[in-house]
Amino acid sequence: xxxxxALGHEAGRMRNTAYHFCESFAGGLAGPECLxxxxxxxPKITEHGPLWATTRLxxxxxxxxxxxxxxxxxxxxxxxYYDFLTSTLTFDPRSVIFPQRHQFAVDPEAGIVTVKLHAxxxxxxxxxxxxxxxxxxxxxxxxxxxxxxQDLWADPLSAWMAVED
Length: 165
Hints:
Layout: H1 4-26, H2 31-38, E1 39-48, E2 63-65, H3 68-71, H4 78-88, E3 89-91, E4 105-107, E5 112-123, E6 129-139, E7 147-153, H5 156-163
Parallel strand pairs: 1-7
Antiparallel strand pairs: 1-2, 3-5, 4-5, 5-6, 6-7
């Protein structure tokens, strides 16, 4: 059985990192800066969705790994994820809703934080917008409390329809 005090400390550290990451996202902090502040040096990001949708939504269904400076010119780094995302979609930072810090779901034994957020997004190309709920599952935290892996579940059909001419 794990030490309860140690698990409580770990849960607090994970919750704080997750909360500050979401707070920064809501504040419009650029992707590379989020990666620098809240992620391990070799992170992974997967926004789950159908692979057929990558023709319009190139950030879906692919696991992006590492940072650009580590992987050179590949198009599969976490920096590339944010480049693809921001060249395809925008969001209204004032629309982002996430729970209070104590409401983030934390499993310190599994090393996972789960949080549901809400925001208004729009297509860069068409300007069509929609609101949606989406979920972050943050995991693989290091000893400093930085995030090693981010999985996202959102509404790819709304995004697909919004980017359509």
